[in-house]
């Protein structure tokens, strides 16, 4: 496991914000982005584009990932399909059930996305990153995942639970 720590970017000073908003920002900034991958290019790209208030932590195996998730309470996780031994859809559903506030991004090939269509359509997987990766797309997806995490944390419990779409 490797961890990359960043300094806080200069943003609106917390002292000038309402107390509840300042507390929410501090809580979110304390949460790392957790990556399950052995792909050093993916890990380096995530470290480069992630807002510096979030530490990027990488795990090379599912067991290390599970331990890190329990220990560090990550808000956003990136799963690399190439590093998984468990089917990605099954793992995504399990993670959603155990950690409802965790926002998942999955990176993989077109065939991996096709296998995840159901999880993507109901929101179990927030975004899918196609390999080879684009820096701009990774940045946009990671930023969107943190926004989503903030929405989920501030909403009444259960209001963002994924639901199946009604069939017509």
Could you outline the blueprint of secondary structure elements for this entry?
Layout: E1 2-4, H1 19-29, E2 33-36, H2 40-49, E3 56-59, H3 62-72, E4 76-80, H4 88-98, E5 103-108, H5 110-115, H6 117-122, E6 127-130, H7 135-154
Parallel strand pairs: 2-3, 2-4, 4-5, 5-6
Antiparallel strand pairs: 1-3
Which ranges are low-confidence, i.e. pLDDT below 50, for 5 or more consecutive residues?
1-12, 162-168
What is the N-to-C order of secondary-structure elements (H for helix, E for strand)? Answer: EHEHEHEHEHHEH
CATH hierarchy class name: Alpha Beta
Tell me which CATH architecture applies here.
3-Layer(aba) Sandwich
Question: What is the number of helices?
Answer: 7
Q: Give the strand tally.
A: 6
């Amino acid at each position: 496991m490797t961890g990359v720590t960043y300094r806080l970017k200069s943003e609106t000073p917390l002292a000038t914000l309402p107390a509840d908003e300042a507390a929410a920002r501090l809580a979110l900034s304390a949460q790392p982005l957790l990556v399950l991958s052995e792909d050093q290019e993916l890990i380096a790209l995530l470290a480069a584009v992630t807002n510096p208030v979030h530490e990027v932590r990488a795990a090379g195996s599912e067991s290390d990932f599970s331990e890190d998730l329990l220990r560090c309470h990550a808000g956003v996780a990136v799963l690399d399909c190439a590093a998984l031994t468990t089917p990605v859809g099954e793992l995504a559903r399990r993670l959603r059930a155990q950690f409802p506030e965790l926002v998942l991004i999955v990176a993989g090939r077109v065939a991996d996305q096709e296998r995840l269509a159901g999880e993507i359509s109901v929101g179990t997987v927030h975004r899918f990153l196609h390999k080879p990766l684009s820096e701009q797309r990774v940045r946009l997806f990671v930023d969107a995942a943190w926004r989503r995490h903030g929405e989920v944390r501030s909403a009444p419990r259960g209001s963002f639970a994924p639901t199946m779409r009604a069939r017509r």
